[in-house]
Design a protein that fits this description.
Layout lengths: L1 H19 L5 H38 L5 H48 L4 H6 L2 H43 L1 H7 L2 H39 L1 H6 L3 H54 L4 H42 L19 E10 L7 E9 L3 E5 L6 H8 L7 E6 L2 E2 L5 H6 L1 E5 L7 E2 H6 L7 H10 L3 H6 L7 E2 L8 H15 L3 E5 L7 H15 L3 E5 L11 E6 L2 E6 L1 H7 L2 H14 L1
Parallel strand pairs: 3-10, 3-11, 6-9, 9-10
Antiparallel strand pairs: 1-2, 1-4, 4-5, 7-8, 11-12
Helix pairs in contact: 2-3, 2-5, 2-10, 3-5, 5-6, 5-7, 5-10, 7-9, 7-10, 9-10, 14-16, 16-17
């Protein structure tokens, strides 16, 4: 019982919160509500006038005095006007609700996009890209489709039921009591189907997100799947997710669709009872024939809102499943903010200081009391086996993750006292995985500095040794990169990212495995570009290939989140420790 009350409360809270997103179009929504009520009132009054017209004809024929065509004409004219009014109000409210629904989802999309810029990097570690895309596209589209009609249908249906009930009560209380039998019958049917339908809708949209993620991964890794002859396995994985989605999908639609036939059965049974009792009342003279006609019409239409309500409620349940998925993202924990400032250190000569830093991704600590001091203009290379904490150090410096103890200072200022955007404006990154968007090469380089002039873009490309190959392309700097920049080589992509970093002109530079995916000749070109880029900047170079860091001012060797060795290349070789083991293993591989 508590669970049912909780679900009901959650549904209403979700609807109320969604309505708040409609405040920007509250005027349009208010007018649509008024039009819906007006159209409903006209629809309620029409059967009564038609019944009066029937009574006029019947009485004229029965009395032998002839039909009063003047009264009949007036009645029919009013009925025609009311039907035209219903048509007009329906058209206008539909037009207004299109605007309302579009503006609402426009606001939701903007908030979702803004929210994704506020969540920590760990959020994307826990949520697949396919699921996030499904929420932003499929769920928002589902909200728009159902919002356009569902709320107005719900309101209009409620007004219709009240109006029809009042008109039927004025004609015959006894017949009205019989008509009301369908209300509890319909509610019982809805209660039987609602919970199961809602559960299947949630499962369906969850599986839809998983399916999107699976398809995205398959397409991105298509060449790998082909090379390992894993098409069958990928197809089996797809079929497994697709089967789960099929099961939940047909159950949701089947359960939701069966509400209407079951409620129609209840309506037909009640209609037979009304017809039999009503005929007896007409014969006895308790009810005039015109009112009986109107009542039968009312009783039929009285059940229509209830029948329509089952369909509307099914749509609302589907919409609520999508709304909750959207709100779950909007309610996700944002990047940490701090109410009070952290102590800075004045008079420090070091550019960057890691002071007793503690950090862990899980309950198991990765860094405990990690300390490092980097002087201005110094190049620090970071080496170590996989999982040693090299990339973690960079993530903490960029505040992609927040430290859990100690402090990190730049020029004596704790980075937690800096705005994240201000902090990242001071840094530039060249990563192992090159990211270039679909657009021209010129735009991709200029991404590093939106205010850069054309000459500065060209100069950055020349400094990165990218200008030569760019100008040899058919369209030069206006060459449009396709999806994942597949129309240029990996090395060329890396040179473009280095040009972007040149254009950014950061005071702190981070190179994370920037040459690990290229051949030796391209590596030499990239290293030449990086040497120019590193000059005069404080920089961190994460590398597996030790040949790229021989000239580093300081090399730190990390293991399990701690510094185990530090020094220059020659000093570390002389220690004959971890660094020497890594170096000798690479040399042995090359010799072999």
């Amino acid at each position: 019982m508590k669970q049912k009350k909780s679900n009901s409360r959650e549904n209403w809270n979700t609807i109320i919160r969604l309505i708040k997103y409609m405040k920007k179009s509250s005027l349009f929504f208010g007018v649509a509500v008024i039009l819906a009520i007006a159209g409903t009132v006209m629809q309620v009054y029409s059967p009564k006038l038609l019944g009066d017209a029937t009574t006029t004809i019947f009485n004229g024929i029965k009395s032998g005095s002839g039909i009063d065509f003047n009264r009949l004409g007036v009645l029919l004219f009013i009925v025609a006007a009311l039907y035209a009014g219903v048509c007009l109000t329906s058209f206008l409210q539909q037009r207004l609700m299109v605007v309302v629904s579009q503006k609402t989802v426009y606001t939701l999309r903007n908030e979702l996009k803004a929210k994704m810029n506020q969540v920590p990097v760990s959020f994307f570690d826990k949520n697949s890209n396919g699921n996030l895309m499904s929420v932003a596209i499929n769920d928002v589209d589902n909200i728009m489709t159902n919002l356009q009609q569902s709320l107005i249908d719900l309101l209009a249906g409620s007004v219709l039921v009240i109006g029809f009930f009042c008109m039927m009560l004025s004609i015959s209380p006894l017949l009205t009591v019989l008509s009301c039998i369908m209300v509890p019958g319909s509610l019982i049917v809805m209660k039987l189907f609602t919970k199961r339908t809602q559960k299947q809708n949630r499962t369906y949209f969850s599986q839809l997100g998983e399916l999107n993620g699976q398809i995205e991964e398959t397409y991105q890794g298509f060449s790998v799947i082909k090379s390992f002859n894993s098409e069958g396995r990928a197809l089996d994985d797809f079929k497994a997710v697709n089967t789960k989605m099929y099961e939940s999908g047909w159950k949701a639609k089947f359960l939701g669709g069966n509400m209407m036939p079951c409620m129609t059965l209840v309506q037909n049974i009640v209609y037979i009872l009304i017809a039999v009792v009503g005929a007896v009342n007409v014969i006895s003279g308790a009810v005039v024939i015109g009112d009986m006609q109107a009542f039968l019409q009312y009783s039929t239409q009285f059940s229509q809102p209830l029948l329509q309500f089952s369909q509307t409620w099914n749509s609302i349940l589907s919409m609520l499943a999508s709304v909750r998925r959207v709100f779950d993202l909007l309610d996700a924990e944002e990047m940490a903010g701090y109410e009070s400032a952290f102590p800075n250190e004045s008079g420090s000569n070091a550019k960057i200081v890691f002071d007793c830093v503690n950090f862990s991704y899980t309950e198991k600590p990765l860094m405990r009391g990690f300390s490092l001091s980097v002087q201005n203009g110094q190049t620090v290379a970071i080496v170590g086996h996989t999982g040693a904490g090299k990339t973690t150090l960079i993530n903490l410096l960029e505040r992609f993750y927040e430290i859990q103890g100690g402090s990190i200072r730049i020029d004596g200022t704790d980075i937690r006292n800096l705005d994240r955007q201000a902090l990242r404006r001071r840094t530039g990154m060249v990563l192992q995985d090159t990211w270039l968007f679909s657009g021209t090469i010129y735009d991709n380089i200029r991404f590093g500095n939106d205010n850069a002039s054309e000459e500065q873009v060209y100069a950055a490309a020349k400094a990165a040794f990218a200008d030569d190959f760019i100008r040899k392309l058919p369209d030069g700097y206006n060459t449009v990169l396709d999806e994942e920049a597949g129309n240029i080589s990996q090395g060329q992509r890396q040179l473009i990212t280095i040009a972007r970093a040149f254009l950014r002109n950061p005071e702190i530079l981070i190179l994370d495995e920037a040459t690990s995916n290229v051949d030796s000749r391209t590596e030499w070109i990239i290293q030449s570009a990086m040497k120019k880029l590193l000059k005069g900047r404080t920089s961190f170079v994460v590398a597996h290939r030790l040949s790229t860091i021989y000239d580093a001012d300081q090399i730190i060797v990390m293991d399990k989140g701690n510094i185990v060795e530090t020094g220059t290349h020659k000093q570390l070789l002389a220690l004959n420790g971890t660094y020497a083991d890594i170096y000798n293993s690479q040399f042995a591989q090359i010799s072999a």
